[in-house]
Amino acid sequence: MKRISNLIFTLVVVLLSAISVHAKGNHGHQPAIENLEDKYKEIGATATYVVANGVPVAQELRFLEEEEVELPANSSLRQIALVRHGEPDLLKTGKFSYNQARQFVQDYDSVGIVVPDTPFLKVENPDDIAVFASSINRAKATANYIFGADREMTVSPDFREFETAMGKHSPNMSMPINFWTTTARIKWMLGIDRQGAESFADARKRARKAAQQLASATEETSKVVLVAHGFLNRYIKQNLEEMGWHVVQDGGSGYLSKIILAKIEPQERGSEGASIATR
């Protein structure tokens, strides 16, 4: 009961924090942020989709130059794109026993992805982007699909997904895989049957560390892309907002979805910037 109360308290704090961050904003740069949001909506409205197995899976992306965005005088634009991995190449239909679900979770971390026909990110100058990726295979495979296997990138377990701890108990029933993974995630958040897995509190600290690392990277390269996971990206987004970043496009949480955040900074002599938008 105490664990449930603590979880409810944590969720309330997260919600209030998000409301506070949204209300706070940066009023001096608000017109520029709104202009950037409008650019995303305008370009996204006519964006084409890349296809995997005949099915549209993601809108194409391209980078805008700073002069295409109405920025305040003597300022520059930094951007971070949080990309979720592509669909794992793994059968997910039907019902699973507990042991089958345990095996599915293991396989989920080891398989590649269903690769679309073409990359959805169109890059004129690859050196303009700093790329980060989770060390889990589905994220690395996605980063390789987007940027190419020879592309230099920072791959780190710090960007791995939050835990899905199946635990040691084995109820005798068969259920859809989403039942097992959702139940496992809730148990993990409550600290139940973790079996030595990272705690929820430590995972949130890791997300904050990741957000700080990405923000610091924009000081050297104004455009940063992280290819990682849905739950982790959600918490990185929250931490970046607390650090003064603004969500200018929220593409949801599906496979190959993206969340793009922007921050406007005073222009340093000789610096250059750019922004991301969907095409």
From TrEMBL:
Superkingdom, natural source: Bacteria
Signal peptide residues on this chain, from the entry's feature table: 1-23
Gene3D superfamilies xref list: Phosphoglycerate mutase-like
One Pfam family per UniProt: His_Phos_1
Keywords: Plasmid, Signal
InterPro entries: His_Pase_superF_clade-1, His_PPase_superfam
Name used for this protein in its record: Alpha-ribazole phosphatase
